[in-house]
Design brief:
The chain has helices spanning 15-21, 128-141, 159-168, 185-192, 207-215, 265-271, 273-279, 296-302, 308-346, 348-358, and strands at 29-38, 42-47, 50-55, 73-79, 82-88, 94-98, 106-111, 115-121, 144-150, 173-176, 196-200, 240-243, 249-252. The protein is of the alpha/beta class and 359 residues long. A hairpin with a 3-residue loop joins β1 (29-38) and β2. The structure holds guanosine-5'-triphosphate, magnesium ion and zinc ion (ZN).
Amino acid sequence: MHTPHTPLLRYGWDEHAERGYAPHAAAGFRPARILRVDRGGRCLAATGDGTVRADTGPVSGTDPTAQPCTGDWAVLADGPTGPLVHALLPRRTAFLRSTSSKRSDGQVLAANVDVAIIAVSLAAELDLGRLERFAALAWASGAQPLLALTKADLVPDVTHLYADAAAAVPGVDVLTLSAVAGTGTAELAQRLRGRTGVLLGVSGAGKSTLVNALLGEEASAVRATRDRDGKGRHTTTHRELFPLPGGGVLIDTPGLRGVGLWDADAGVEQAFTDVEALAARCRFPDCGHRSEPGCAVLAALADGSLPHRRWESYGKLQRESARLAARTDARLRAEHRKEFKRRQQEGRHAMERKRGRLR
Ligand SMILES: Nc1nc2c(ncn2[C@@H]2O[C@H](COP(=O)(O)OP(=O)(O)OP(=O)(O)O)[C@@H](O)[C@H]2O)c(=O)[nH]1
Ligand SMILES: [Mg+2]
Ligand SMILES: [Zn+2]
């Protein structure tokens, strides 16, 4: 691919970005990838001629999912005070989570991601429920999940931990890594070649350490070893995109303890393909898996091939996803009603003038 945007290739410029940018390819505009979003409506963006600071601007209203985020492809304009994000290109994939359990707002964690690396420390107690939640979030985003078991140098034998973790994420590639021993990092680099990866996981899982191992330099701050009781402390505070020397880019993120699912129906299904396959084998298509004869789920629970823990986790994530969907629907309905009233009051012409100004 030879375009004026060739320097952006190392930031992941591809045909999708090229196509998305085409309608904006007018004088005065240039494409950029958002590397980091800072407070105060500023961001760091990679352009064809270097990294610039840009104003994120009033991109489009108040929808938090429409705001620029790390990994987005943006159209930059030259504003009165410097570069300005004029528009965002359509996202190939997007990581959405609910901003809090009480509200139905979504927040985009990262955009245009191909590989979602779930970092789990082998040195900490394995939390399978959390792993399943991360996997559902990853599948829902449209990215391919990858499980990275970190700090392998701290455990004498990883066999059982590996087996337990792998069983919780069917269909997901699992890598065992040690940044200290330098194992597994070449395999990870290879899977990221020409792609965009994002690191997910709790604080202290070793995400930034992996970034630095792949970059071959201390680009992302890592928690000091003597800071043993770093509980609840996040060493990484921003989501940031780094181009990798072997090709591809990697987004480091602050640790996520709890992640609320968002629009994750399909994600839950994909994270539990084993359970879904069992349920499809029940004698009755509308089996409730409670006491029905010929229930394949109950049989698998009885013979231990489906752990009770996993069955409960599946139900929990499904209910959470459904609850959120219902709440979102209610909110959207209310918003549409409000919007309709507002339009009636303002009149169409005033509306169009306003729009013309905002664009
Ligand atoms: N022994 C060992 N320690 C590691 C390894 N990877 C990371 N660590 C240590 O684990 C601690 C946490 O690593 P970070 O990379 O800061 O973890 P993080 O996931 O980026 O954490 P947040 O930025 O807070 O989300 C640091 O003290 C690292 O030195 C590893 O492979 N082996
Ligand atoms: Mg970090
Ligand atoms: Zn059943």
